[in-house]
Amino acid sequence: EVHIKEPIEKEVNPHLLPGELLLCEASTVYKYMQEDGSNRGTYGKLVCTNFKISFLDDDSASDDNEPQFKNKIVGENDITLQCVDQIYGVYDEKKKLLTGQLRKYPEKLIIYCKDLRVFNFCLRYTKEEEVKRIVSGIVHHSQTPKLLKRLFLFSYASAAPNNTDGRNQTVMFETLEDWRDELERTKGNVKYKAVTTNEGYRVSEKLPLYFVVPICISEESILKYEGRGIPIWCWSCHNGAALLKMSAFPKEQDDSTSQMQKAFLDGIYKTISKPPYELLKMDDLSSSLPSLQDIQTAYTRFKQLFLIDNSTDFWATDVKWFSLLESTNWLEIIRRVLKKAIEVAECLEIQHTNVLLIEETATDLCCVISSLVQVMMDSYSRTKSGFQSLIQKEWVIGGHGFLDRCNHLHKSEKEEAPVFLLLLNCVWQLVQQYPPAFEFTETYLTVLSDSLYVPIFSTFFFNSQHQRDTNKSGESLKTQSGPFRFLTVWDWSVQFDPKAQAFLNNPLYAEKPKPDKSQRKTARFKHQRQLSLPLTQAKPSTKRGFFREETDHLIKNILGKRIGKFINSSDEPPNSLREFYDSWHSKPVDYHGLLLPRIDGPEIKVWAQRYLRWIPEAQLHGGGTIATAAKILDLMEEVQSLQVKMDEEHSQAVSGDVHSVPVLRNSARLSSLFPFALLQRQSVKPALPTSTWKDLEDEDDLVKRDDEFVDLSGDML
């Protein structure tokens, strides 16, 4: 039985942003604690606005329990409407997906979020009228298709005061000067030029206002096929070789048209391929990488492993964790993408060859590969402002269809694919393999992935620069006189105060003047749930890498053929690539030079912080990367206080010009879930998981095995 507390005397009202309107609410809603099977939880009010779904309880009114890493826009009990993945209702203990009009209203509501949180609300003690209003309101506002101008982005932009931090160092690539500066920075201005041909979007609405092409490409060529078939510059290597991308012509064409297009392309290729001085390698990504549909299918399967309702479900899946993880194919897709980036890097670095990436629109996998190559080859892209400028250049201005790929408007699931998340997963692999090479942390990447679903920033809510520009005018709103002033996600002060922002910066970043070459291998932390498919040897051979055809037979027999297939699933690459990979990994790492990811099966890991942060069962008490970070930050604080004392002794006291360091006073309370959650209740792993009990039907056999020690913890340690 659940004891119903008397209604709260003091009214708890939601914190509303400018332009945010309360649409419906329900009192006496019981929110279950997700992590255990008991009915423990808390009473409160469930509200739905035009921005978010929010649960308000007693704690919402007090600031005593304020987390150190607090998001100022989205609280821990807030779900933005764009972050809602699926909504289930529970009717007589049966779960049913809720969509459209409802005939019967559930007694329990389960909301699965795109950031992998799971909320369980009991509506049994709520008034029937309120249940109808809140359930139909939540389903309608979060699941039904909507018009672009109905996004909260526009309500917020028209109502919010424009007082953002103007000291943003990110290059936005919205002006011709930004492109010219980038050409100069990469020494690409000898062979390439920034063009204004698309001003007024007269060439194509899919292309940005300004972009860079080879010097010898004429304006007529760009105009001829609306920008298709034109090599667009991404980046230039220090040796002059360039990375280019091109949107391909449609494959189904009549003969005369395709002949004309072929002749046009031959002419274009001759301008950038002049053997032996200028070589060109073309790479059609639609044939050499998984399709967007494959990526979406793999991610859909993968995220199900982490959308866990309760503790019992978690331990039930633990027994078959490896096979479930492998069957999703998500880690294999990450590996293939990283391998493709290594191939491109080898062409640019060793063969001094221009690489032309080809894709139907050049706005999906082209963005992933070109961004990864730049992160691997250009140390500027590994700084915070450099990485943000890279995302602006290749994705936001480059025309990646965030609106369609994230399905923000719920228009078509066919267009949905987690392409940007795929990039962040790949960059995370590099960040965790070479931490000193990056100015930002994995927390930065996690927060950036969450920002995909916060519709107060325009960064991830348009398909192209043209769409953003045409929707900037506020003519449709009578209250709005001038154009909308959209926020950019790169102004982190909107979401976090300075102390919280400190978690986004890497205190161990090896700054350029003094590159740290001594640290070859970084420490790895064992998570309670192993995060990569196993295939490690005690002593790795010198010829390590994804090229080794023969895998240790004993390991292969133990782990079965599936994992062998995972490691060796791709064709043997050319000798030059094998030598390039092995040669690079045999030398000490230059954190400001080329970085190549290790992509053996076990080296490709699950991004633990993003995917396990809401699952208390997966936490390490006082452990994980945060334990190390806590020690480092304590040490930094001590060094700074000593420095101040020394300065005071020399009568040169510093006037408060010390960088803010997040103070982790009570590090004993921290777990690997930090900074997204503090230490949670310890979940006890059953001696034998539920599913195993079901499989063991012969009770006599269990009696015989009475004295035998059954160790099922191998999967977890």
Automatic annotation (TrEMBL):
A Pfam short name: 3-PAP
InterPro entries: MTMR12-like_C, MTMR12_PTP, Myotubularin, Myotubularin-like_Pase_dom, PH-like_dom_sf, Prot-tyrosine_phosphatase-like
Keyword Cytoplasm: yes
Record-annotated Myotubularin phosphatase domain positions: 173-611
Cellular-component GO terms for this entry: membrane; sarcomere; sarcoplasmic reticulum
CDD domains, per database record: PH-GRAM_MTMR12, PTP-MTMR12
Intracellular or extracellular location(s): Cytoplasm, Myofibril, Sarcomere; Sarcoplasmic reticulum
Keywords: Cytoplasm, Sarcoplasmic reticulum
GO biological process terms, semicolon-separated: phosphatidylinositol dephosphorylation
Family affiliation: Belongs to the protein-tyrosine phosphatase family. Non-receptor class myotubularin subfamily.
Protein name, as recorded: Myotubularin-related protein 12
